[in-house]
Each structure stands twice: as C-alpha cells, then as structure tokens.
Amino acid sequence: xxxxxxxxxxxxxxxxxxxxxxxxxxxxxxxxxxxxxxxxxxxxxxxxxxxxxxxxxxxxxxxxxxxxxxxxxxxxxxxxxxxxxxxxxxxxxxxxxxxxxxxxxxxxxxxxxxxxxxxxxxxxxxxxxxxxxxxxxxxxxxxxxxxxxxxxxxxxxxxxxxxxxxxxxxxxxxxxxxxxxxxxxxxxxxxxxxxxxxxxxxxxxxxxxx
Length: 210
Description:
Number of strands: 12
Helix content: 10-25%
Structural class: alpha+beta
Strand content: 25-35%
Number of domains: 2
C-alpha cells in the first residue's frame, strides 16, 4: 500500500506514523508480521490493535531510484475523527482508465519478447511475456515455492501460458485476467533461463486471484 500523505492531528501534532518516520510515497507491505493486501486491509489491522500498543511496519522507500526496505515501530494512539493512520494512494489517470493493464493488479510488469530480448536473455524458441519487474507489495511477490519458501516468480522469467491459454502479447494476458474474479485459480506456465547450466527450465506456478 502506497502512502500519499502522513497526516497531522487536529491540533497540529504529528501522527504515530509521522513520529515513526513513515513518509509520503513509502510502500507499506507488512503490519506486525502479516502481509498487507491493500489500504483497507491496513486500516482494519490498525483498528484491531489496542491503543498504546506498538506495531511493527515493514515498508519500502525509493532511495535514488532503488527500493530500500525498512522496518519502523509505531505506537498507536486514538484516531482523530475522519483520520486514518495514512492516506491511501489514489490511482493515476492511466490506472483508472485501465486498472488491469499489463498485469498491474497482480503487481507485475510484463514486456512482449523482441528479437533483441530473446538474444540477450538466451530465450531462443520461447514465446510468451517477459517479466521486467515485480512489485514487492503486489500479489505475485507473495507467491512462494512450497518446498523452499522462495519467491516463485522473478524478473527475467517468461510466462508462456495463463490458465492453459498461450500468451504472446499483452492483450492475450489481459484478456484472461479480465475474466477472473477473486478466488479463481491462476496457473502460469513459466520458462526460466538457468545460466549456470545454460538450459531453459519449464515449471508451473499456481496461486489464487485476489
């Protein structure tokens, strides 16, 4: 959840979030050891925590173009009427017009494969969508390999199918996503280039759409 504003109380005093060092544009991903799904999820967790109790927040902050992971401790106080711990981000005009574009609501940025990308990433013969970036606070970042607990998808992976449908363009991917509802399964066929062995590995990643 992205913070757009760290508010003050009615008498001009700093809020618990401000005192803890939370800043605008921070991305809060964890509250007391539990992953945060969205702004409402954070608000509910704050509301369910007794006044005076300390809470630990894990957040990411943009520092010189890189996301810096930080942990802060907030001591909760009474919430002034109409005020939340933080103000959730409002969607940009582009997101409002197309909130599901390019896997945005999964927290993943995809790119169509180009001849140059295929050559640079050793993906000869692979057709699909290249994972350029994974939002650390998005749904995809929370998907783990059961045996190891490692993140199941990484930058550089290629998604070749979603729910058995081949995806060679962003439009193919978005078409499947647009037909999903919360609770539906997502099954991804993924190809990864393993540099150490100089081979392409195929695997399946499954999770539930939220």
